[in-house]
Amino acid sequence: MGADLTRIAANIPALQNINILSKISDNIANHQLRLA
Question: In this structure, how many other beta carbons lie within 10 angstroms of the beta carbon of residue 15?
């Protein structure tokens, strides 16, 4: 159990980066729609 928690904790920054990247790509898509 403890090992699983540390593995999850180690993955949290990566998950946050994925969320940020998906928000950025959404913003880019919205800008492209507006420009089109």
Answer: 10
Give the tens place of pLDDT for each residue, 1-36. Answer: 578 888 888 889 998 999 999 999 999 999 988 887
The one-letter amino acid at 27:
N
Query: Within a 13 Å sphere around the CA of 12, how many CA atoms are in the beta-carbon half?
Result: 6
Angle at 34 between CA 22 and CA 19, to 5 degrees: 10
Place of tokens 């940020």: 20
Place of tokens 């998906």: 22
